[in-house]
Amino acid sequence: MSTRPAVLGPAAALFPPRAERERLDDWLTRALPRANERIAAGPVVPSIDFAAFRAELAGFDFREPRPIEEVLDWSITRIERGVVHMTHPRYFGLFNPAPTFPAQCADRVVGALNPQLATWTTSPVAVEIEAHVMRVLARRAGLPEGSVGHFTSGGSEANFTATLCALTRANPRFAVDGARAFTGPPVMYVSRESHLAWLKIAHESGIGRAGVRLVATDGTGRLDARALAERIAADRAEGCVPALIAATAGTTNAGMIDPLLACAEIARAEGLWYHVDAAWGGALIVCDDLKQALAGMDAADSITIDAHKWFATTMGAGMFLTRHPVVLSSTFHVSTTFMPSEYENLDPYVVTAQWSRRFIGLRLFVSLATAGWSGYSDHVRRSIQLIALLRGELAERGWRIANDSPLGVLCVEPPAGRDDVRSIAKRVLASGRAWVAPAKFEGRDIVRICVTHGEATAADIAELVATLETHSRTT
Ligand SMILES: *Cc1c(COP(=O)(O)O)cnc(C)c1O
């Protein structure tokens, strides 16, 4: 007689019964908004005692299980005092948003149901929701019918995807032979104000960091189109193989938009892939009038827009859009016996850099569906209005405005006789009242201020002005 082997019941801490889950979910639902309220009333930068924190952390040796409330409460309260707060209304930061509430809800849904988006067969509804959002955004960005796209971990992965597509189209042997396939070193063009992830991307894609041409800017933070054309000609003369021009629509430092039409024209004449990195600035497509600033983006072969920047979804949500679905699938194509792809253009794992894949896009879908274009347009406009208010207040007090961007970011130099930019930024951060960044723009030291919080108010701007005025004086 055979005996069945004994099997343990579910690990109770990992898979508690429903009543327990509901109780904890309710507790979290109440705890989190309150934590964010305390954050908004406190310092924007970390205030935790790090020695004490590290000692506590070392105490987690994972030998004795602890109650989940205790561990979650510990995590929330330590994060509350231990990070720069993106959800603080005076985080005038690096585009990292206070996430929209619909995006947070969507993240919860995705976390609970956890679909795997590698293939259409496994998650047809989820894959089609993402593909729908992409088609609509691609049209809104000016790309033609038939354009496609997918969600990425962020703008860097989207720009990486553009680079691989450019190299694959430039030489179909690239997929097999790598950079050796080219008759000379492949090179790509970005401006020197572009996002420096391009250097890592060049490394990752195998063309090497030396293959990145940091083209001169025109003195106002925009790529100099004539310098671009000259550099391409010089590279060709030396036997290099130009493959990609990546214009930036909204530079990270100063929100400047490269001459998109001129770059498109050069790329067309030279037969190069034309990518527009609109990681942050791309959100202007939600505003019918303001999107004029992106004229020329519609000529792009591909576009990067981050959902986790001005679209204010939770972190880890970028987007890659392209008018060339065939190039995308020839770049990422694989066939496996364990996962035969029957849906070549729908199966994310054969048209993207990732394999196992989170349902990233639900956050933007739910946010767009609940706010509509008009809700998003108000969100974008509000940030630009607050920056205009700040520009006026600071200019009145003798601060020099260094950038001329149509987006919600301001670069300023302190009035003569004040302290240097680094010391000012350091003291502003130490005060805990606001977060701003010291940066360089066209060779000058500037304070960089971006309105990233959808609920920041005129009072927050007034507090920032007062903080900058106080902490820029040396005495
Ligand atoms: C933020 C940014 C990136 C990088 O995007 P991640 O989402 O941080 O990976 C690339 N380009 C520009 C212009 C950016 O602003």
Task: Characterize the overall form.
Answer: globular
Which whole number gives the mean pLDDT? 95
Structural class: alpha/beta
Lateral arrangement of strands in the main beta sheet? 1-7-6-5-4-2-3
Question: What helical percentage do the residues reach?
Answer: 40-55%
Main beta sheet strand tally, sense and closure? 7 strands, mixed
Radius of gyration: 24 Å
- Name the helix and strand elements from N-terminus to C-terminus, one letter apiece: HHHHHEHHEHEHEHEEEHHEEHEEH
- Number of distinct helices: 14
Count of DSSP strands: 11
Distance between the termini: 91 Å
Share of β-strand residues: 5-15%
- Heteromolecules bound: pyridoxal-5'-phosphate
What ranges have pLDDT less than 50 throughout 5 or more consecutive residues? none
What oligomeric arrangement do these chains adopt?
single chain
